[in-house]
């Protein structure tokens, strides 16, 4: 673009975990190369922009959180544009393009972006560029990259039309191809997994002479550290180098680190003791499940059965020490560091990340603030290229962040769950600075868990259940790793677990009580029906049973306190691998069944061999099909509720399919009508899911 003055567009983002902001920053970075200037703000900064008077085109990047909600930073914005008193032409002057981020593992894919898109349309705003919906399940970059590539032409078209309306005669661009380009339309609408036509040209190829890069006759298989033709012989399109913007000053070792509560913006944090811990599975079970009890009696923390809460957890101590060693900063771990923005940075709107304290020890930052296990983004890989001295390693990092290396990035970085430490081991000549890590590593997120208790049944107590997550060693990960939070919690409560196994009564006064910091997770609708006479069905295999223990505890207490009330029937479908190894809460469920709190208990065991003549069902969805008429009766005739908790990919989708078949058969309608009924149940909050991937 040959304009003397760069044309401005408004760039807004709303992020929960930092991905939408990172993409907005990439758009902002690329804008300058196209002769444009991005005026970038978070949607929450409503005092810095005004859509009601905005004349320039608007680009919005927005993620989705929870069960399809816009991120916390978009709440006020959504509330404002949802105002029913606004006229339908309130934003008729506005032209915008929207990029939504989501995960198709979850039911309400990209619903944050779709919600904002719909509300803007209802207020008369017009698309200047088709909406893109990026899927984190398969890789955001599959949609994000081509969407950004097409954005610049769409913006040029807007500015050209603006100039024509203003009666200006000078052309928008000196580019001789611009006339031809203006006839092209942007075909990026709702890009997702089905759009297999998105392809990127390799451009002119040339053979590289670096013998470290070209695969030998025996190295025919690519890996994280090795490429093969054609990519090893291709010219590469790599991202622009992100500008540095963080400056670090090392100080002495005197002072105190900030309290963990200062790192959390989502709500009030509570430091609570862990009073009990027990292992729910046998030693030979495939997965180890633990039950922890927290004492919340002396806090204002409150919850309902079915609620979730978040645990603030640290990175693994040995991984922090290992990273310090690789960075050559082992002796500086206890030194305080002061984080500031470089005065001469070229990064627009640069600011110290809010989750990094202005002053704390280096070890505190690496332990509590940065997600060391995060899968590195391509922009991070691009920055690491500049820190790598070996030519072969440098080339491979360039390939992994290039357009031509998209499939290698997906295979060897994304799908392999490679983290920073894995990269530094694989590319030993890569020596990044501490400031680079702070610029590119995202915030260490608190981990969410379902409550497995009732405050009515156990006043002052909060229980939760989890499997200890394990990531086995593989070619890209030299050692077995445990989940960041579950591994830490398991180590934290190991003394309590040993005491339970040895039948030792720990003296609470003489032994220190471990404490963890928690906060409530808002906007959870996964609750019992407000009317106790309404029946409900619960589906929770494995640790998915956790919230339903709280449901049943609560129901039992209500039955004891209100003998004159009418209570609806309750169904629980539970499944696990082995009846004698991982049947969680077996005794408790039997008691609920015997005292009438639980009306029907249906269980299945996927790995146990059966001697019965008729094959026994292995999975909960199979058992649900066996009770099709009863399930349909509860939902259709008695206006009951249907709850699902557990693994999304390997259970919840199959349960949804089973219920769809049941509705179709029992209502004697086709699948389309059954899907409409399912949609009605979801809309009425009578089909509820608490699932994870």
From TrEMBL:
GO terms for molecular function: [methionine synthase] reductase (NADPH) activity; FAD binding; FMN binding; NADPH binding; NADPH-hemoprotein reductase activity. Its EC number is 1.16.1.8. Keywords: Amino-acid biosynthesis, Cytoplasm, FAD, Flavoprotein, FMN, Methionine biosynthesis, NADP, Oxidoreductase, Phosphoprotein, S-adenosyl-L-methionine. It is found in: Cytoplasm. It comes from the Eukaryota. Its cofactor is FMN; FAD. Residues 267-529 form the FAD-binding FR-type domain. Forms a multiprotein complex with MMACHC, MMADHC and MTR. This is Methionine synthase reductase. The lineage of its organism: Eukaryota, Metazoa, Chordata, Craniata, Vertebrata.
């Amino acid at each position: 673009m040959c304009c003397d003055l760069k044309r401005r567009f408004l760039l807004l983002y709303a992020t929960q975990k930092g991905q939408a902001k990172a993409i907005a920053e990439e758009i902002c970075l690329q804008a300058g190369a196209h002769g444009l200037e991005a005026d970038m703000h978070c949607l929450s900064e409503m005092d810095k922009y005004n859509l009601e008077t905005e004349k320039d085109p608007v680009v919005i990047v927005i993620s989705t959180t929870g069960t399809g909600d816009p991120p916390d930073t978009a709440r006020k914005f959504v509330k404002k544009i949802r105002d029913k008193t606004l006229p339908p032409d309130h934003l008729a002057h506005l032209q915008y393009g929207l990029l939504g981020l989501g995960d198709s593992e979850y039911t309400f894919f990209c619903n944050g972006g779709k919600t904002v898109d719909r509300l803007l349309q209802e207020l008369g705003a017009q698309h200047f560029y088709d909406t893109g919906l990026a899927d984190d399940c398969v890789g955001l970059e599959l949609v994000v990259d081509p969407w950004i590539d097409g954005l610049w032409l769409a913006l040029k078209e807007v500015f050209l039309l603006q100039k024509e309306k203003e009666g200006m005669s000078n052309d928008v661009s000196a580019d001789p191809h611009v006339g031809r380009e203006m006839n092209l339309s942007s075909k990026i609408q709702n890009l997702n997994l089905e759009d297999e036509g998105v392809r990127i040209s390799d451009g002119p190829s040339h053979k590289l002479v670096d013998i470290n890069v070209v695969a030998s006759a025996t190295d025919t298989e690519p890996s994280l550290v090795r490429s093969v033709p054609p990519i090893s012989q291709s010219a590469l399109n790599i991202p622009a180098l992100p500008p540095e913007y963080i400056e670090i000053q090392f100080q002495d070792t005197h002072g105190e680190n900030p309290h963990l509560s200062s790192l959390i913006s989502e709500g009030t944090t509570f430091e609570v003791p862990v009073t009990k811990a027990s292992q729910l599975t046998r030693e030979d079970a495939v997965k180890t499940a633990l039950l922890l009890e927290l004492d919340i009696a002396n806090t204002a923390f409150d919850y309902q059965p079915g609620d979730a809460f978040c645990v603030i957890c640290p990175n693994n101590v040995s991984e922090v020490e290992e990273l310090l060693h690789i960075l050559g900063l082992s002796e500086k771990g206890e030194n305080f560091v002061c984080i500031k923005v470089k005065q001469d940075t070229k990064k627009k709107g640069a600011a110290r990340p809010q989750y990094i304290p202005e002053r704390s020890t280096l070890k505190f930052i690496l332990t509590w603030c940065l997600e060391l296990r995060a899968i590195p983004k391509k922009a991070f890989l691009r920055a690491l290229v500049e820190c790598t001295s070996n030519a072969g390693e440098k080339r491979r990092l360039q390939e992994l962040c290039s357009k031509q290396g998209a499939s290698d990035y997906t295979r060897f970085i994304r799908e392999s769950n490679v983290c920073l430490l894995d990269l530094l081991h694989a590319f030993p000549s890569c020596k990044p600075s501490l400031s680079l890590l702070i610029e590119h590593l995202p915030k260490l997120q608190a981990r969410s868990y379902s409550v497995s208790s009732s405050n009515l049944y156990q006043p002052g107590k909060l229980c939760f259940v989890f499997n200890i997550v394990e990531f086995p060693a593989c070619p890209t990960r030299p050692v077995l790793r445990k989940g960041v939070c579950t591994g830490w919690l398991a180590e934290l409560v190991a003394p309590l677990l040993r005491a339970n196994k040895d039948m030792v009564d720990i003296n609470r006064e003489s032994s220190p009580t471990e404490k963890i910091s928690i906060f409530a997770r808002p906007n959870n609708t996964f609750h019992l029906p407000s009317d106790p006479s309404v029946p409900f069905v619960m589906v929770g295999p494995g640790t998915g049973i956790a919230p339903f223990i709280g449901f049943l505890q609560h129901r039992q207490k209500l039955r004891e306190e209100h003998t004159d009330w009418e209570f609806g029937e309750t169904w629980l479908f539970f499944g696990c691998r082995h009846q004698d190894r991982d049947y969680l809460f077996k005794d408790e469920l039997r008691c609920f069944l015997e005292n009438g709190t639980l009306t029907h208990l249906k269980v299945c065991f996927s790995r146990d061999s059966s001697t019965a003549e008729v094959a026994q069902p292995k999975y909960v969805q199979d058992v649900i099909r066996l009770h099709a008429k009863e399930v349909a009766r509860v939902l259709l005739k008695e206006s009951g509720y249907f709850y699902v908790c557990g693994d999304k990919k390997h259970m919840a989708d199959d349960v949804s399919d089973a219920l769809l078949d049941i509705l179709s058969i029992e209502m004697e309608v086709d699948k389309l009508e059954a899907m409409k009924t399912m949609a009605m149940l979801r809309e009425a909050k009578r089909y509820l899911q608490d699932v994870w991937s």
